[in-house]
């Protein structure tokens, strides 16, 4: 087989890139190691920045999101029971859309199916070849046979544990990492959300987040030690601890119910540079990871692939290499800004097991700086609704 761009991974990065390239008349094939059902079964992000909304519009996959997504014009922060609302619209004139990553993925899958774009699911042993030559190609195994796809470029959209980043020589890559000493226990339930907006809570017993997927489906998170397992957290324990960390009015409003999904995600900050090596481009979690406290992971991925699609269109339509040559530097500028914001929100709102009295006072002072100064709230709002890519 031959295509212009071989895309590894059919998560949001790969699917959005496939659609944007299709819209530009650039042929592409996506290779995904899992089944489509498995990909849809992963419960992840929930907040879309305006640049992500624009990306879905360009991809022709925004219709249901506009119909069912919830526009949020602010968010509530609670710091040791002191409440404060950050008004995005008042501060920066923008908002966010609450719409689950699962639904984004489903809409992108449907849009790709409508274009007849080829996605090979359950493609095993994907390997990248000749990425530093003018004739790169990808091989994979399926139905007991090895297949080859010759291409001009390869887009590594295969997430943190994918094969693409590992295909770049170790002496070329520079990586940066911070692993946090706790995880997020997430619960999905068909219960009405506790509030019409998200609530981020810093409590002496740990962080909590009240989010949602619709007016009848809620998503909640609790900071838990890395040693905890999902089986340590029966639903009753989860609800009791969430009530403990919420302020009384919210705890009183909380509607509990059976969990549809429960999982623990580790938190890390990670960046690998550069995001391009000859004919291979990395996008999304394949290149960077943020702690979900800033709701940036999915949105960074959407920014990367919009930048990559523009660069490849410039190459194919104008024979210019300016876009692809500038891809890595352009993405990393926004990636590091989002890494900073996500690290800042994580340090501000979590209880660190080894923090001393002084560090706790610094957290308190940081929160007061944020909520008691006009610039503080504006800076949070600017970062939360999304920086331009
Ligand atoms: P993804 O990891 O989503 O997709 C990569 C795809 O590549 C997968 O389908 C994988 O199966 C496939 N793949 C991997 N190796 C392959 C190979 N060798 N061959 C072929 N295919 C291969 N972000 C937020 O903003 N908010 C959140 O609350 C949030 N929660 C998260 C919870 C968890 C447990 C995780 C892991 C991430 C979370 N994220 C969150 C971040 C998440 O939303 C990512 O940013 C987003 O999925 C990035 O999309 P992709 O770059 O497409 O990577
Ligand atoms: C979610 O709804 O899953 C979500 C929302 C905001 C975050 C993280 C996760 O910061």
TrEMBL record:
<keyword id="KW-0285">Flavoprotein</keyword>
<dbReference type="InterPro" id="IPR050641">
    <property type="entry name" value="RIFMO-like"/>
</dbReference>
<keyword id="KW-0503">Monooxygenase</keyword>
<dbReference type="InterPro" id="IPR002938">
    <property type="entry name" value="FAD-bd"/>
</dbReference>
<dbReference type="Pfam" id="PF01494">
    <property type="entry name" value="FAD_binding_3"/>
</dbReference>
<protein>
    <submittedName>
        <fullName>4-hydroxybenzoate 3-monooxygenase</fullName>
        <ecNumber>1.14.13.2</ecNumber>
    </submittedName>
</protein>
<feature type="domain" description="FAD-binding">
    <location>
        <begin position="2"/>
        <end position="342"/>
    </location>
</feature>
<keyword id="KW-0560">Oxidoreductase</keyword>
<dbReference type="InterPro" id="IPR036188">
    <property type="entry name" value="FAD/NAD-bd_sf"/>
</dbReference>
<dbReference type="GO" id="GO:0018659">
    <property type="term" value="F:4-hydroxybenzoate 3-monooxygenase activity"/>
</dbReference>
<dbReference type="GO" id="GO:0071949">
    <property type="term" value="F:FAD binding"/>
</dbReference>
<dbReference type="InterPro" id="IPR012733">
    <property type="entry name" value="HB_mOase"/>
</dbReference>
<keyword id="KW-0274">FAD</keyword>
<dbReference type="GO" id="GO:0043639">
    <property type="term" value="P:benzoate catabolic process"/>
</dbReference>
């Amino acid at each position: 087989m031959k295509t212009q761009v071989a895309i590894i991974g059919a998560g949001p990065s790969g699917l959005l890139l496939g659609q944007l390239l299709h819209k530009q008349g650039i042929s592409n094939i996506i290779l995904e190691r899992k089944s489509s059902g498995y990909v849809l079964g992963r419960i992840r992000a929930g907040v879309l920045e305006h640049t992500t909304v624009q990306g879905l519009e360009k991809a022709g996959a925004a219709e249901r999101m506009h119909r069912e997504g919830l526009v949020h014009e602010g968010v509530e922060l609670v710091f040791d029971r002191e409440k404060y609302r950050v008004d995005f619209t008042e501060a920066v004139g923008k908002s966010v859309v609450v719409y689950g990553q699962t639904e984004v993925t489903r809409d992108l899958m449907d849009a790709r199916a409508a274009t007849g774009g080829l996605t090979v699911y359950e493609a095993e042993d994907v390997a990248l070849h000749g990425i530093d030559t003018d004739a790169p190609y990808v091989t994979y195994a399926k139905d007991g046979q090895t297949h080859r796809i010759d291409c001009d470029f390869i887009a590594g959209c295969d997430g943190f544990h994918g094969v693409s980043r590992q295909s770049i020589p170790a002496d070329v890559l520079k990586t940066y990492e911070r692993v946090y000493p706790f995880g997020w226990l997430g619960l999905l339930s068909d219960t009405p959300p506790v509030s019409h907006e998200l609530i981020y809570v810093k409590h002496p017993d740990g962080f909590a987040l009240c989010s949602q997927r619709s007016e009848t489906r809620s998503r909640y998170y609790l900071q838990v030690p890395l040693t905890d397992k999902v089986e340590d957290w029966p639903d009753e324990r989860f609800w009791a601890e969430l009530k403990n960390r919420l302020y009384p009015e919210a705890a009183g409003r909380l509607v509990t119910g059976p969990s549809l999904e429960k999982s623990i995600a580790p938190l890390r900050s990670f960046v690998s540079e550069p995001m391009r090596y000859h004919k291979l481009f990395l996008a999304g979690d394949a290149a960077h990871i943020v702690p979900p406290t800033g709701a940036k992971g999915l949105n960074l991925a959407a920014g990367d692939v919009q930048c990559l699609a523009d660069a490849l269109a410039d190459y194919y339509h104008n024979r210019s290499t300016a876009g692809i040559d500038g891809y890595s530097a352009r993405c990393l500028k926004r990636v590091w800004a989002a890494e900073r914001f996500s690290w800042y929100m994580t340090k501000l709102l979590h209880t660190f097991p080894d923090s001393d009295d002084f560090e706790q006072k610094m957290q308190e002072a940081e929160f007061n700086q944020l909520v008691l100064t006009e610039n503080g709230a504006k800076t949070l709002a600017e970062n939360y609704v999304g920086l331009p890519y």
